[in-house]
Amino acid sequence: MFEILKLSPLFAGLDTLEINLLINKVFYQIRSFSNNEVLAFSGERVEKAMILLEGKLQGEMVDFSGSTLKIEEIEPPQMVAPAFLYGPQSFFPVNLSALSDGKILIIVKKDFTQLLANDLRVLNNYLNIVSGKAQFLSRKITFLSFKTIREKIAYYLLNHLKTGMMIVSLNQSQKGLAEVFGVARPSLARTISEMEEEQIFRWERNQVIILNLQSLRSILGKY
Amino acid sequence: MFEILKLSPLFAGLDTLEINLLINKVFYQIRSFSNNEVLAFSGERVEKAMILLEGKLQGEMVDFSGSTLKIEEIEPPQMVAPAFLYGPQSFFPVNLSALSDGKILIIVKKDFTQLLANDLRVLNNYLNIVSGKAQFLSRKITFLSFKTIREKIAYYLLNHLKTGMMIVSLNQSQKGLAEVFGVARPSLARTISEMEEEQIFRWERNQVIILNLQSLRSILGKY
DNA sequence: AGCAGAGTGTAACATTTGTTACACTTCGAT
DNA sequence: ATCGAAGTGTAACAAATGTTACACTCTGCT
Predict the structure, then answer these.
(1) Which terminus of chain A has a lower count of CB atoms within 10 Å, N or C?
(2) Which residues form the domain of B185?
(3) Residues B28, B86 within the same domain
(4) What's the start-to-end Cα distance of chain B, in Å?
(5) Which of A70, A143, A133, A82 shows the shortest CA–CA distance to A109?
């Protein structure tokens, strides 16, 4: 088990022995689960830290009409819902169910807090994980706040542009990009065509060549 | 100073003496700033924890064309950018500038980590703050992911509906709601009219009376 | 070389939302 | 009670995006 934990972001920088000592200072529990089992329901309070050791879990969002919607997959050795263990609304945002047999390490919240306090490195790691989540979400909101497809394209390109270069290499298909942007694929293609027409860039299969950086920037500048 | 800190979420549950002892265990610094001073630039690394003691600060988002866009205000005794002190990308997402004269308490990251480890309550508080931020952002994304105005209205109403009741009281003007939704005010009014037409609810000045909960739910159910 | 499947360009049309404008209501301050 | 500011209902029109459909290109495989 400690070999697996050593690979987890939470215990990064610690060796197996140190992890062993830390974990054994607090009360913990290992729970096996089998395929399709539901480990937690949306809305349930999160009272334990859970680290996936083996197997695969899935988070299903449940909407108001009762049907499940979006999905997120969790693989070992990741923590489950790290940003929902603390905070004013510490309840599961999703239904947590198993996609295979597996095992999780469970530490109740109070003991987990103790664990964090016992080792500055683990504390730092956990803060990094939660903060990283917040930063990821923050960036996502920035992105979602752009209304038009033009703005999204401009933002995406400028963010992937290495300084000094005029080429952005694409590791996504146009179809994939449309999904990230949350827009229909033909709509994206249309806007790309228009922007090519305006000599803003040349869009090739695996890369985009920026022709007019100025006007690309001005799309995001409202003033 | 400790009187002010006692009111901050970070030191909730501690008395003045305890805060005094904790703070004095680590290295800290108090910095005065004057109106319009820029305390940090967007992109700068966050290396210190900052707690606003007096005055008012503002975060200005800077876009690619150099102009400042959106704003966020910070008032004492709040922490500045709590979710950006740790994490893989710990740099300011905004320009931090002063809206008045004031003072901030500064603790370098390393000492701040030590401070957290020294008192379980403060650690818990900080985890609550950062997690709360993440949860807030998460909910905001859920909301932003609804495309149509109908969906946003349905989600908003269902979330503000107390169980068993059929009335949602509004503490926002229609104009204010439109801003929260990120849509134009007349567009919101139009959709509200349409939904009233369909007997889904009756929208009065300060409250909404749900007439058909079923169909309100079905707006969010894709299946 | 030929084939199948995924990805792409493009068009016509439908739907949704934004914009602008104006008349009407509400509500608090004088 | 009256005034004025803020909020609301509504309409006509513009702009952006979605939907559907189809032909074409690319790529990997046999």
Answers:
(1) C
(2) 146-220
(3) yes
(4) 56
(5) A82
Looking at the complex, report in whole angstroms how far the Cα of residue A204 sits from the nearest Cα belonging to chain B.
Answer: 24
The pLDDT tens digits of the residues spanning A179-194 come to 889 899 999 999 999 9
Q: Are residues B21 and B131 in the same domain?
A: yes
Residues 182-211 of A with CB under 8 A from B: 182
Rounded mean pLDDT of B139-143? 83
Please give the tally of structural domains in chain B: 2
Burial of A196 (0-12, 13-18, 19+ CB in 10 A): middle
Pick the last residue of a domain from B142, B165, B195.
B142
Distance B126 CA to D21 C1' (A): 55
Nearest nt (C1') from A184 Cα: D18
Contact A137 B132 (CB under 8 A): no
pTM: 0.84
Mean pLDDT score of chain A: 88
- Pick the more confident residue, B11 or A59: B11
Cα distance between residue B206 and residue B168, in whole Å: 9
Q: Using the structure, give the distance in angstroms from the CA atom of A173 to the C1' atom of D27, rounded to a whole number.
A: 13
